[in-house]
Write a structure and sequence with these properties.
- The chain is an alpha+beta fold and about 375 residues long.
- The protein folds into 2 domains: about 160 residues, FAD/NAD(P)-binding domain (3-Layer(bba) Sandwich); about 150 residues, D-Amino Acid Oxidase, subunit A, domain 2 (D-Amino Acid Oxidase, Chain A, domain 2, 2-Layer Sandwich), CATH 3.30.9.10.
- The chain contains 9 helices and 20 strands.
- The strands form 3 sheets. Strands 5, 6, 7, 13, 14, 15, 16, 17 and 18 form a 9-stranded mixed sheet that branches. Strands 1, 2, 9, 10, 11, 12, 19 and 20 form an 8-stranded mixed sheet that branches.
- Strand 15 and strand 16 form a beta hairpin.
- The radius of gyration is 21 Å and the shape is globular.
- It binds flavin-adenine dinucleotide.
- The site of flavin-adenine dinucleotide has 41 residues, from helix 1, strand 13 and strand 18.
- The site of flavin-adenine dinucleotide (FAD) has 41 residues, from helix 1, strand 13 and strand 18.
Length: about 375
Amino acid sequence: MRTIETLVIGGGIAGLSAAARIARHGETVVLERESAPGYHSSGRSATFCHFGIGDGLVHKLTAVSKAVFAAPAEDGFPPLARRMAALFIARAEESDQLDRLTATTLAHSPEAERIAGDALREIVPVLKTGADGFSAGLHDPDAYKLDSDAMLQANVRALRDAGGELVPDAPVEAIRRDGERWTVDTRGESYAAKRIVNAAGAWADKLAEMAGVKPLGLTPLKRTIIAFRPPEGVDVSGWPFTKTVGEGFYMLPEGSGRLLASPMDETASEPCDAQPDEETIALAAWNVEQATTMPIRRIEHKWSGLRTFAPDKSPVAGYAPDAPGFFWLAGQGGFGLQTSPGMAMAAEALLFGLDWPEALGEAGIDLGELSPKRPSL
Ligand SMILES: Cc1cc2nc3c(=O)[nH]c(=O)nc-3n(C[C@H](O)[C@H](O)[C@H](O)COP(=O)(O)OP(=O)(O)OC[C@H]3O[C@@H](n4cnc5c(N)ncnc54)[C@H](O)[C@@H]3O)c2cc1C
């Protein structure tokens, strides 16, 4: 039995970004079931940071995190992100949605501007515009393409520098409360910890049940991405992340000259190693072909992952009301990478009762907003 201060369960972006900060306050271990960090959602994302997703809390956390992504890279290490524009596109009947998104985006990203009909094709030449296409858009040059691997590795380094440890191949199999501590059994080792942080992504409710703690009612939703080559001779490297404001798709260029696209599917799933299905792969290609003049000849790669939401769709960080020392860090939905720096700051402050970080206060994030005790949960 190993006795430590804080045990973090889950080696995705949520657990690792929080652990990198938690480790400054006492011995910290991160347990990850898989053999490498980021095997599940954190390694399967579209890795983009923008304001076209989530509620007000998500936007404020994104604004705090964007400052981190905009900062220069650590010496000798790859940058966590690079600036890449976002383009939101709307059909005539979706103008209200575009107006709302414009207001939200401008509140955080003042360089964003509205683009009219035909001008969309100057940015993404394959878009269909006019009567059976898109009639307007919103272009935000100050969005970011994230590098999930660089983000995970930077957090692992910070964790180790602070004396913490990431233990892979360590599935948590039992959790119980023994007096003042939590005892957690993995296949190889048992840990006694003053506090545990539940950052198990799609499995976070399962972990709570294992510990006898009331689940939050999390819903994992499957999302699928395809990768394909643009038509011969078309250079997509300068294209923005392009997303329909309503149903449809998003697409973005990848480093290798390919495009990634998702039909923005949201299929309820059990927590699992999510796999793409044929129907959704076909839908991804069809949605892109309907919205553009681009045929998709061959899908070179495809994958799926889970986006896990709390019942009110907002992320959760805070001690469980029914279990001392049991801290929730869950419900990162489709915005877990782009909010992770802000969420990690909040988690550290809430775990140790520190002063509320200035950056969070300035962004207008209230200490209670992330709480698992908030009325909407
Ligand atoms: C297709 C797709 C596109 C996305 N696009 C974006 C995007 O553009 N921008 C963005 O910000 N977000 C995006 N997301 C969302 C983002 O990926 C997630 O919000 C984020 O990765 C969640 O991180 P996490 O650490 O909570 O979960 P995970 O990365 O899933 O980590 C949880 C970890 O807990 C471990 N675990 C579970 N149970 C146990 C156990 N019993 N013992 C030990 N370990 C355990 C798991 O193995 C897993 O590694 C996307 C997600 C998907 C699927």
